[in-house]
């Protein structure tokens, strides 16, 4: 099966002969869902899917929120597969109702980003994948303009840009571009805030956090720590020299050392092992991130869901990853986006960070390290504030902590790994209600 994926992933990346460029939007019979393609550049088609919340409250002092969800990866960054069906959408992978769906608090807009991921596609693989975060951002702004500017319903909503994992980098750059496009009138929307969900904002800080964290937890020993530190230092020199592609290669070496010295710790949950049969594949753990039940996802997205959506080109096979997209972004992958977070704060955009306690890839230790690098004038006040404990429902167990100063907020979610709503759905739903100031009860 693994081989089949690789084959299909290759097939999809090496050029789809897509003839009919005209694909518009469709909606479900009751109008509660809408989806479509936007041609963001010639021959580059981005897929979006909007769920309207049945819990919408009108007549409140706060506008109804809409959450734009950007997935992680690339690869494996399909917002539809991971964000929607595995984390926060109305239905789970078995097409059963998800009790803690974020639709209870907001509308949801899933976008397959960048083009080449999931149901989004390009007609020429040799030149149309994005090479930088900014390229992806430009495509996303084009999509938002197409989706929002002709929809007075959406324009009344408060738009929150959520980015998980690598999607966090896109959320930061898109937050800035969307802010500017709204300001100059090209995008008709209201920006509520930017939310960084276990996000890859500072690759250097995450890579440096891994070995010390795992050493303290007995998961690696001093030898592993030393090997990793040597490579991390090498990576830092490459980053400082602006050699981002080399730093990318060194990052992969660090990952191998961590995997090997820990007997394959899971990067999405450092209390677990990588949940797969390592003897049958050469794929590295990173490719498994966020992708549980891969066969089920694959069958669902190429079966029932593509049938329902109707507009997915026949020749396009949904795949969990696209290495072509990943490789195309190689020069940007290791670039930090701390400065963009600073810029958002300086502009007065509300920024919320949340992090799962047992995430290794985008560890809380790494997130705290880059937060301390912010130049934002409120930083010292933010750091010196005490945290508030969080509970969920009637349970008196501590579920997390929260603190906030001016427009920076941080949620620490206990027991959660890389994909917080998947691990801790109850507290995640409360949190999203608070972040978006949802008028829903
Ligand atoms: C909403 O508020 C307006 C004016 O404040 C009122 O006329 C209208 O009946 C309200 N609608 C609902 C559904 O409460
Ligand atoms: C379903 O979600 C609601 C809303 O958050 C919660 O109050 C309820 O306890 C949940 N039910 C179950 C069975 O988890
Ligand atoms: C959407 O487009 C149509 C046709 O171009 C136009 O008549 C209508 O006013 C637009 N609606 C909004 C909300 O911009
Ligand atoms: C508006 O802002 C966006 C985002 O920064 C930019 O791409 C676009 O060129 C601007 N348009 C005008 C008319 O200034
Ligand atoms: C992995 O670790 C084993 C010992 O635990 C060592 O023999 C092997 O060379 C290591 N492989 C890599 C790729 O580091
Ligand atoms: C892992 O792969 C080996 C070799 O193909 C096989 O014998 C074993 O049953 C597999 N284990 C699991 C848990 O799938
Ligand atoms: C905080 O964000 C709000 C919008 O969400 C903005 O109106 C306000 O000016 C910002 N405050 C600061 C101190 O930047
Ligand atoms: C910013 O977001 C936090 C939640 O993340 C919220 O508590 C706060 O009220 C928001 N601030 C503004 C000005 O909207």
Fold and architecture overview:
- This protein has helices spanning 2-13, 79-88, 133-148, 152-155, 167-183, 203-216, 222-240, 244-261, 294-302, 304-309, 323-328, 330-333, 338-347, 364-371, 379-384, 420-423, 425-435, and strands at residues 25-27, 33-41, 44-51, 65-70, 107-111, 121-122, 158-165, 190-199, 265-266, 269-273, 351-356, 388-390, 400-405, 408-413.
- The strands form two sheets. Strands 1, 2, 3, 4, 5, 6, 7, 8, 11, 12, 13 and 14 form a twelve-stranded mixed beta sheet that branches. Strands 9-10 form a two-stranded antiparallel ribbon.
- The protein is α/β, with parallel strands linked by helices.
- The protein folds into two domains: 2-200 and 334-435, Rossmann fold, CATH 3.40.50; 203-282, no CATH class.
- Residues 1-23 and 277-287 have low confidence and may be disordered.
- One 2-acetamido-2-deoxy-beta-D-glucopyranose binds next to helix 5.
Tell me the span between the first and last alpha carbons: 45 Å
CATH topology of the largest domain: Rossmann fold
CATH superfamily of the largest domain: Alpha/Beta hydrolase fold, catalytic domain
Q: Which ligands appear in the coordinates?
A: 2-acetamido-2-deoxy-beta-D-glucopyranose
Query: Major β-sheet, in short?
Result: 12 strands, mixed
* CATH hierarchy: architecture of the largest domain: 3-Layer(aba) Sandwich
Number of DSSP helical runs: 17
Helical coverage, percent range: 25-40%
CATH classification, class level of the largest domain: Alpha Beta
Structural class based on helices, strands and sheet pairing: alpha/beta
In percent, how much strand structure appears in the residues?
A: 15-25%
What's the mean pLDDT score? 89
Low-confidence stretches: 1-23, 277-287
Please state the CA-atom Rg, rounded to the nearest Å: 21 Å
Number of domains: 2
Shape: globular
Tell me the total number of β-strands. Answer: 14
């Amino acid at each position: 099966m693994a081989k089949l994926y690789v084959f299909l992933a290759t097939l999809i990346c090496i050029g789809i002969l897509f003839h009919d460029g005209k694909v518009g939007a469709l909606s479900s019979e009751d109008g509660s869902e809408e989806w479509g393609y936007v041609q963001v550049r010639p021959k580059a088609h981005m897929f979006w899917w909007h769920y309207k919340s049945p819990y919408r409250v009108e007549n409140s002092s706060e506008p109804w929120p809409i959450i734009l969800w950007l997935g992680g990866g690339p690869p494996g960054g399909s917002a539809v597969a991971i964000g929607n069906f595995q984390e926060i959408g109305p239905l789970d992978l078995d097409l059963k109702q998800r009790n803690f769906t974020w639709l209870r608090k907001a509308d949801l807009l899933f976008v397959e980003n960048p083009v080449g991921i999931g149901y989004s596609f390009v007609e020429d693989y040799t030149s149309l994948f994005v090479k930088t975060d900014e390229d992806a951002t430009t495509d996303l702004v084009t999509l938002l303009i197409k989706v929002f500017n002709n929809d007075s319903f959406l324009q009344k909503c408060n738009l929150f840009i959520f980015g998980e994992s690598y999607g966090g980098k896109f959320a930061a750059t898109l937050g800035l571009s969307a802010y500017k496009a709204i300001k100059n009138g090209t995008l008709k929307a209201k920006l509520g805030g930017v939310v960084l969900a276990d996000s890859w904002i500072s690759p250097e800080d995450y890579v440096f956090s891994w070995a010390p964290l795992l050493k303290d937890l007995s998961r690696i020993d001093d030898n592993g720590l030393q090997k990793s530190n040597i490579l991390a230092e090498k990576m830092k020199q490459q980053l400082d020299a602006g050699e981002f592609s080399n730093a990318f290669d060194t990052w992969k070496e660090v990952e191998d050392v961590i995997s090997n010295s820990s007997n394959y710790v899971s990067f999405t949950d450092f209390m677990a092992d990588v949940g797969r049969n390592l003897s049958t594949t050469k794929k590295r753990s990173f490719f498994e991130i966020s992708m549980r039940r891969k066969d089920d996802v694959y069958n669902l997205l190429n079966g029932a869901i593509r049938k329902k959506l109707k507009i997915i080109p026949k020749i396009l096979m949904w795949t969990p990853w696209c290495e072509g997209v990943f490789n195309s972004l190689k020069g940007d992958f290791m670039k930090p986006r701390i400065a963009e977070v600073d810029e958002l704060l300086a502009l007065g955009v509300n920024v919320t960070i949340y992090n799962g306690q047992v995430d290794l890839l985008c560890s809380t230790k790494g997130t705290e390290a880059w937060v301390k690098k912010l130049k934002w004038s409120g930083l010292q006040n933010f750091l010196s504030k005490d945290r508030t404990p969080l509970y969920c429902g009637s349970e008196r167990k501590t579920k997390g902590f929260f603190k906030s100063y001016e427009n920076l907020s941080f949620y620490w979610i206990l027991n959660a790994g890389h994909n917080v709503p998947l691990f801790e759905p109850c507290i995640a739903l409360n949190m999203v209600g608070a972040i978006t100031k949802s008028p829903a009860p």
